[in-house]
């Protein structure tokens, strides 16, 4: 974009212009400039953000799209996050826990579809540490490719199981886990405390520190549009996450779940969530950023939009069909068409290609590890 075109955006300050013009990574964007861009809902800003975010992604990680297979291994949860439909207080939530066989079978479908990362997600279900270690090992073995020439014979296993003692994280790393996803949700301490019963942000961040010490590739992220969240808070979160050099950053709109204390609140604004995605990308060019399921679960599927705003990961759902409906962290969760058919895993590949084509990206069939490794 030329300087004239940038200044024609009018409402942007010189420095916010520098953000969309791609001055970073020479100088990281300041939270004030990020806030200004988050607040600009006009089309010119959208175009500038898309261009800048795509440029940041393509120079950071290349114009690639990767798929990670999501398996929702249990809907039991002992935590009580007020936004989440699986919180311990929700008596209406349907609870299930997948067996090792079900998990390995689901992962095998993902391997047959060519995916090389398995994400095991659950509520804080208290699953036995050694049992999960055995599951991790079984998934790694099920996806082993003896013919791999790139040193990536084993698939990557990502865990997203919430807060556990460091000794558990250590055991799972030992068992072969590679990555851990744990969004900080919001970096605003007061808001975090208001949204969680008896747990503060510090306990979440202490888990991050432990996971890093153990050598996990670490993912963080936030929800956008939480009740009581400010735009300047989001800008500060994006800046702090950029400083944290996360391998992965997940950003999605808040979707009120009717059976939670926040059921009557206003949903997060999609435009704001997309701008936050673009700014996360501009601030963190080397992070893997998904077009999240929450973005697919709107009045339409916004995942291509998210890719145009700098995202580069999709996470098709490979949970068994019965589990997909029960794992209701928010209502209307769209189980994207690519993974609906358990008998035809190759559909995942076709759908991935369609998403990549629509966003001008090339499908990367590899593990897509942390770019810092
Ligand atoms: N137990 C794991 C996984 C949580 S579910 C953990 O603690 O990390 C994965 C993510 O879904 C959460 O991190 C949160 O950001 C998101 N989420 C939960 N409830 C949501 C809601 N109502 N709307 C949008 N996203 C939500």
Number of beta-strand segments: 9
Instruction: Give the number of helices.
Output: 15
Q: Could you tell me the radius of gyration in angstroms?
A: 20 Å
Average pLDDT confidence is: 91
Q: Which class do the helix and strand fractions yield? A: alpha/beta
CATH topology call:
TIM Barrel
Largest sheet: 6 strands, parallel
Outline: globular
Distance between the termini: 32 Å
Task: Tally the structural domains.
Answer: 1
**Percent strand:** 5-15%
Fraction in helix: 40-55%
Instruction: List SSEs in N-to-C order.
Output: HHHHEEHEHEHEHHEHEHHHEHHE
The CATH homologous superfamily: Aldolase class I
Which descriptors apply to this entry?
binds S-adenosyl-L-homocysteine, globular, 373 residues, 9 strands, TIM Barrel, three-stranded parallel β-sheet, alpha/beta, six-stranded parallel β-sheet, 15 helices
